[in-house]
Design a protein that fits this description.
Layout lengths: L8 H11 L4 E2 L4 E2 L6 H16 L3 E4 L5 E5 L6 E7 L12 H17 L6 E7 L10 H6 L5 H6 L8 H7 L17 E9 L4 H5 L3 E7 L1 E10 L3 E2 L11 H10 L1 H8 L5 E10 L5 E2 L2 E10 L2 H22 L2 E10 L2 E2 L2 H13 L4 E6 L4 H5 L5 E6 L15 H19 L1
Helix pairs in contact: 1-3, 3-13, 8-10, 9-10, 11-13
């Protein structure tokens, strides 16, 4: 291994800036590349051209995962990268930075004449941000997609996954055939912004993720009676919003009774009906998002919140329904790769923190296919999924050089 190998920070910065020209909103500073949108697909075509220009063997699979192979044309590979899609009005670093770092690492290897024994494949995964309720790109690679899910998946506006992919010339059911064969990927590495405040507050430049939290989404409907806001006495109301408010008040109690330091419960999406200023809400529909790094704890939290919904409905004179909308199990990433990352960080004199991730990442899906590792770099003020998302470039440089060293070691 070349001890002086180091990424070209200015080249990396330019690459990320140019990716982010796709879907950029100059009025808000946000980035808009939802999965299978025109901006998302344009970014993929542009990224493919960059990899071709670097001499990589480029291909795209049935779900628009993009691969650029460096090294031997055949045989197992080491895969590295992240996603290019964003949430609406998202930040500049989430996902795209990881894909750009992976490509910059390969560019650096090429510059210094490092030829890997096992090929390296740069990957830009598709539809990671969950527009349709999953992480379709990495799930397809890992063989974790079912026909039932492909048939039913829809976004928040009711657009089906099949229709969205068809508009981009893709067949959703091709996802089944996109699975990589067992043994074809020896390891997967991803660099990502933390999306939380831990590293910045601890003043530690890199995080090494050991666990990724699972997620349960509960779709809740509280039904009461819509009525005039001026003429209906408070004690005679069946106010769906009042029930929702009571559920929200119980979050802290449920975590105290059943949770841990890793527990997170959020009500982030709410629809009121008829949603008019002079009308008592007759129906509230909302999603309870539950996360924890322990599967048993996560299920206990889901049961606790379901009881909270039932109690709130009874107190407010409402009927209620709770449906488990989706489930992703917590994942422990590969311990050997975590140790390798820690060793390489020490060689680079980088303090590193072993830590969990509360957000989902492609690495958790890839772990079912191959040993996987995840590097975090700090997020300023912990802000993500917003235009204010920022990671300092000196921190990015440290994390990218750690990725470079790990890839060179893994690939021989």
């Amino acid at each position: 291994m070349a001890p002086s190998a180091a990424i070209n920070l200015q080249r990396l910065r330019k690459l990320l800036q140019e990716v982010n020209l796709h879907g950029f909103n100059p009025q808000t500073g946000g980035h808009n590349r939802p999965g299978y949108s025109d901006a998302d697909m344009a970014a993929r075509r542009w990224f493919a051209e960059q990899m071709r220009g670097d001499g990589l063997a480029v291909r795209s699979d049935a779900v628009a995962n993009l691969f650029g192979r460096y090294g031997r044309a055949r045989g197992p590979c080491i895969m590295a990268g992240s996603h290019l899609d964003t949430v609406p009005e998202g930040g500049a670093f989430d996902g795209a930075l990881g894909a750009c770092v992976a490509l910059e690492c390969v560019r650096t290897m090429r510059d210094i004449g490092f030829v890997p024994t096992a090929a390296i494949e740069v990957v830009a995964t598709a539809e990671e941000e969950g527009r349709f309720g999953g992480m379709l790109g990495s799930q397809a690679i890992a063989g974790a997609v079912t026909e039932r899910w492909l048939e039913s998946a829809r976004d928040a506006d009711g657009i089906s996954l099949q229709d969205a992919m068809r508009e981009q010339g893709l067949d959703a059911f091709g996802a089944i055939e996109a699975a990589r064969a067992p043994g074809s990927v020896r390891a997967f590495l991803e660099l990502h912004v933390e999306q939380g405040p831990v590293l910045e507050q601890a003043q530690i430049p890199v995080g090494i993720v050991e666990h990724i939290a699972g997620v349960i989404n509960l779709a809740v409907t509280l039904t009461g009676r819509a009525n005039h806001s001026g003429t209906t006495p408070m004690e005679l109301r069946a106010d769906a919003f009042a029930g929702l408010a009571r559920v929200g008040q119980e979050i802290g109690e449920v975590i105290a009774a059943h949770g841990s330091k890793s527990s997170r419960i959020t009500i982030g999406k709410v629809d009121l009906h008829p949603n008019f200023i002079h009308t008592v809400p007759g129906r509230a529909e909302f999603i309870i998002n539950i996360r924890d790094t322990d599967a048993q704890t996560m299920r206990a939290l889901a049961k606790g919140m379901t009881r909270a919904v039932e109690d709130a409905a009874k107190e407010s004179g409402l009927t209620w329904e709770v449906v488990q909308q989706s489930l992703m199990e917590p994942i422990r990433l590969d311990a050997d790769i975590a140790s390798l990352l820690e060793e390489e960080a020490a060689r680079l004199s980088l303090p590193a923190l072993r830590m969990p991730s509360g957000a989902g990442h492609d690495a958790q899906t890839m772990q079912s296919l191959c040993p996987s590792g995840l590097i975090f770099v700090p997020s300023r003020d912990g802000i993500s999924h917003a235009p204010q998302e920022w990671t300092d470039w000196d921190a990015i440089e440290k994390g990218a050089n750690l990725m470079l060293r790990a890839l060179m070691r893994l690939s021989g």
